[in-house]
Specification:
Blueprint lengths: L2 E2 L1 E4 L17 H14 L3 E4 L1 E2 L5 E2 L2 H14 L3 E4 L9 H5 L8 E5 L3 E3 L2 E3 L3 H14 L2 E6 L2 H12 L8 E6 L9 H8 L7 E6 L2 H14 L2 E4 L6 E3 L2 E2 L3 H14 L3 E2 L2 H7 L6
Parallel strand pairs: 1-16, 2-3, 2-13, 3-6, 6-7, 7-10, 10-11, 11-12, 12-13
Antiparallel strand pairs: 4-5, 8-9, 14-15
Helix pairs in contact: 1-2, 1-8, 6-7
Bound molecules: zinc ion (ZN).
Length: about 270
């Protein structure tokens, strides 16, 4: 039986309480939201943290505190962001790797992000990949565009990333590639055989449709307030866990078993397996 890995991206960098008042921001709220998502069936949490004003930060102490609180509650796999937020420097974004998380996102190229943009050059990608390799952190190769798949290939060929590869396809970012299953399929066909991938549809409709894309093409699902704050058109989600619950239901109806954190550690050969 196939196992479905569900990642929950509980807050992100750009979502605010104005978008959804149920957004978790403090370390305590992030830990509780993670635990609720875990109980609902998420096996990976994708983690960003916020400062006291609720603004995105890459402060290592806040990450450390949040991870400690999560670990007191459950053994969910923790994937930290190294994408950070719009306008952050590489040094800022990379310091969280010192905590040696099990997984981390590795952005594989430059992309529009609404009216802003995210810069990731090949030299900076190499730096992230080297650090992750050194610390035994499994990268999620985040591709916001087709060219990012080829950029990832460059660092793979240079030996900076080791198999099994895990890709994250981020689709429907305003100004980026749109989500549709045909485009997703095109992307999936261009990654190395035997790789794993998770699809993230940004915005309510794309997020929901991407669950079915993952089911159809044997990928994994990501949900959460980083990607989408709605449950349905015009209706805000009550919690991250509510979005996980729906993904679990859809995956089970599609004939999948839900992967546990232990399954993920084995499948992606995490150093904690
Ligand atoms: Zn993120």
């Amino acid at each position: 039986m196939n196992k479905m890995v569900i990642t929950c991206a509980i807050c992100g960098a750009e979502t605010t309480k104005e978008h959804n008042p149920n957004l978790p921001v403090t370390p305590e709220e992030l830990a509780q939201a993670t635990y609720d998502a875990y109980l609902a069936g998420a096996s990976i949490v994708h983690l960003h943290v916020r400062d006291k004003k609720g603004k995105a930060t890459m402060d290592v102490d806040i990450f450390a505190q949040t991870i400690k609180l999560i670990r007191e509650k459950c053994d969910i796999v923790i994937e930290v962001t190294t994408g950070g937020g719009v306008g952050m420097s590489d040094e800022e974004r990379m310091q969280v790797l010192e905590l040696k998380p099990e997984m981390a996102s590795l952005d594989c190229g430059t992309v529009n992000f609404g009216d802003e943009f995210i810069v990731n050059t090949l030299p900076s990608m190499r730096n992230y990949a080297k650090k992750m390799k050194e610390y035994g952190v499994r990268p999620t190769l985040e591709c916001f565009d087709l060219s990012h798949i080829y950029a990832a290939e460059v660092i793979i060929k240079e030996g900076l990333v080791e198999p099994p590869f895990h890709y994250g396809f981020v689709m429907n970012v305003p100004g980026g590639v749109k989500y549709d299953v045909e485009t997703l399929d095109f992307f999936v066909r261009r990654i190395p055989k035997g790789s794993f991938w998770t699809v993230m549809g940004i915005g309510g409709r794309a997020s929901l449709l991407s669950h079915y894309g993952a089911l159809s093409l044997n990928g994994f699902i990501r949900v959460g307030f980083e990607d989408n704050v709605y449950y349905s058109k015009g209706v805000l989600a009550k919690s991250n866990a509510q979005l996980v619950e729906r993904a679990v239901r859809i995956a089970k109806e599609g004939g999948y078993e839900i992967a546990t954190p232990k399954d993920v550690r084995e499948l992606l050969k995490l150093r904690t397996a």
